[in-house]
């Protein structure tokens, strides 16, 4: 084949341009140390790079955002739970102190102040939040667990369920002593019939005090209406009696005036104290039924309007309906609401802990503390009455025999009330030790669960960290080149480029005259 000068010239241009492109390619690589600048440079490298970078983006989302957010949520929850556990432990300590029969007036006042502060602090921990989101309220992270201020307008219809363990015994006291205020009362003394007496009843304590007395509660036992339900029990003579239960609403003042009388087949709804008081026959029948039916349940629907500071919001604990705007009622269904974070591919981690009757911070804790406060307040008042009567006996105006005889009767009555109050307080605080130990165990168990989730999260975090480093290395190996390799290739390409220029200059310098 005949090779012309024009062919040599064209081939020289192609060779020079090819080697020059290589020089430019390696010159660019020396600047950014990347294997390719556009997908067409190496489609295999480009596709692998896209896949690796997409994986790295997912891992970064887990490692740099989701996992730290979940860690912070769990840390805040664990701190709040530990604070709750310490508070409940402090209440237990107060119960130990309160069960002591050598308490002074100052000791009782200290216990009362401590219990008030501890209850406020306990439910304040329930309002703990992370980045403005409350951590114990399920999906309702924009609401506090409890009322931060008194609320007089909210009205709820609340459904609450009880089991047989909610039937407890309580002492009620009639004829609380009122000190004499004039000479006639002092000298007349106090009749035995007017002295304090103790009445013991079984009751079921409702979650709230101050319930709506104008709306009768709906109460069912195992699906049957309690009012009119057949009951069987033994009366005080041991005779087996069959009858029907009756339910009635009664104010605490009227029940107190009736010396806390209650028929065997009667159930009294006391709105002010938030209690269902059971007649002996009803209580016996319920306990007998529960022994043969392990699924024994009582359901009660009642209404409450107005809440005190620190009261739990009903929608956080119960199935209920907000009736504040009666034209637009809002119904809430209590359910487990788990907030989960995606901390790695196909791995969800629950980060929240939900308060409620079936979880931590039940309403029973607050009601127990309130009853402890009431008991110590009653003991303080009873002991004050004894001290005041003793002071009156030392006053000159009551030095006559008649007054002294009358005050002696008052002192006997006051000492009787003091004995009742002190005994009730000691027994209540004694039983409270077991109750608050159980509350603490429940909180500690939840703290352990949070710690376990946090440990799993740490393992996932370590795995994500390793995976992130591995993917970054793969991306680097796929996309980057070592400077030394680039320099070698650049030197080779530049030498080839110079050689092509030299060859072209020699080939293109020859003419037809060189062959003549």
Account of the protein in words:
This protein has a six-stranded antiparallel sheet with strand order 7-6-13-3-14-15. The mean pLDDT is 90. It has helices spanning 5-32, 43-98, 105-125, 183-188, 252-257, 280-292, 314-317, 363-394, 401-479, 483-509, and strands at 129-130, 133-134, 151-162, 167-174, 197-205, 218-221, 224-225, 230-234, 240-244, 246-249, 266-270, 275-278, 298-307, 319-322, 330-332, 340-344, 347-350. The protein has 516 residues and is of the alpha+beta class. A hairpin with a 2-residue loop joins strand 6 (218-221) and strand 7. It has ten helices and 17 strands. Helices cover 53% and strands 17% of the residues. The chain has three domains: 5-58 and 480-515; 64-139 and 338-380 and 412-479, Up-down Bundle (f41 fragment of flagellin, N-terminal domain); 150-336, no CATH class.
Key traits:
single chain; 516 residues; alpha+beta; f41 fragment of flagellin, N-terminal domain; 3 domains; 6-stranded antiparallel sheet; 5-stranded mixed sheet; 10 helices; 17 strands; elongated
